């Protein structure tokens, strides 16, 4: 007959480990303007939201995690699923954040997280858009530069923000098509970089403005454009859906309008990077100098 097992009492001072409850929180962090971000976190325990004075959403996420850990019992492990605007935290950043806040884990979204995370992100985006509606639009000049297969695109905002991108076009597009690609990718980059403010986008390419006007009328535009660049495809959707946020108008090129001249210079630097004529460090230094020289003193033309 098999003996019945009996429990052995624990030695004095021995404490058995216990499993802590895990609480799910869905977090969204987005930029509001050049030096401010806002976060919104929601769970069954409550809602957390605040403005953080930083231009980096992943830095604002630190404030969000601090608010969560401070208000939720230390006996509870917090699982955070986050939608953080670019540049998003790398795995290394995530591990550093987890090391700063005990029993807080940043995890990728599972199937059950998609809907609540979408609701949080949508609510924050709507709040930011409502707040931006009371502020003047940010004026942004965009431009492109093409030489051979090298393409550079850039934008410069009146508040000093700027950006650029470069690439070598491996397709057989003629020069006129590459110019259109460069101009549209410049506008797309500006709209993507400043996602929650009203923008007044100045362009010196009438062909690009004609394409944007066709998109707004519900037309597809040139068929080859969709395959030319994924950035342009996303830009077309933004143009169609963000009518109240985005305005586009023509300005004459090389006519002394400082924002446009600055964007033109930035696009040429980006194109020279694609040609490997200038180094990354030199391009960054020169781009920063151009933005500092052109944006603060830019005189913005009145809309006609």
TrEMBL record:
The molecular function GO annotations come to: nucleic acid binding; RNA-DNA hybrid ribonuclease activity
Matching entries from PROSITE patterns are given as:
RNASE_H_1
Q: Which InterPro entries match?
A: RNaseH-like_sf, RNaseH_domain, RNaseH_sf
What Gene3D superfamilies would the database entry show?
A: Ribonuclease H-like superfamily/Ribonuclease H
The RNase H type-1 domain sits at 134-272
Protein's name in the database: RNase H type-1 domain-containing protein
Organism this protein belongs to: Gordonia malaquae NBRC 108250
């Amino acid at each position: 007959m098999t003996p019945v097992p009996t429990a052995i009492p624990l030695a004095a001072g021995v404490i058995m480990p216990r499993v802590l409850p895990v609480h799910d929180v869905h977090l969204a962090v987005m930029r509001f303007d050049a030096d401010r971000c806002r976060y919104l976190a929601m769970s069954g325990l409550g809602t957390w939201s605040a403005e953080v004075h930083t231009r980096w959403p992943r830095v604002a996420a630190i404030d969000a995690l601090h608010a969560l850990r401070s208000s939720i019992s230390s006996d509870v492990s917090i699982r955070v699923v986050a939608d953080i605007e670019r540049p998003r935290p790398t795995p290394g950043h995530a591990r550093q954040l987890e090391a700063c806040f005990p029993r807080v884990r940043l995890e990728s979204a599972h199937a059950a997280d998609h809907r609540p995370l979408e609701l949080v992100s949508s609510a924050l985006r709507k709040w930011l858009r409502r707040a931006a509606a009371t502020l003047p639009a940010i004026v942004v000049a965009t431009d492109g530069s093409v030489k051979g297969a090298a393409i550079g695109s850039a934008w410069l905002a009146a508040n000093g923000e700027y950006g650029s991108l470069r690439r070598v076009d491996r397709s057989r597009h003629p020069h006129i098509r590459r110019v259109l690609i460069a101009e549209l990718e410049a506008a797309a980059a500006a709209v993507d970089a400043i996602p929650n403010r009203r923008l007044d986008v100045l362009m010196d390419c009438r062909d690009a403005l004609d394409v944007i006007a066709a998109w707004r009328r519900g037309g597809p535009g040139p068929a080859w454009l969709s395959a030319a660049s994924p950035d342009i495809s996303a830009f077309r959707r933004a143009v169609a859906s963000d009518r109240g946020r985005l305005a586009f108008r023509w300005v004459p090129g090389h006519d002394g309008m400082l924002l446009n001249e600055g964007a033109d210079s930035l696009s040429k630097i980006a194109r020279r990077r694609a040609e490997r004529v200038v180094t990354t460090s030199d391009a960054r230094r020169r781009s920063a100098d151009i933005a500092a020289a052109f944006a603060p003193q830019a005189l913005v033309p009145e809309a006609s």
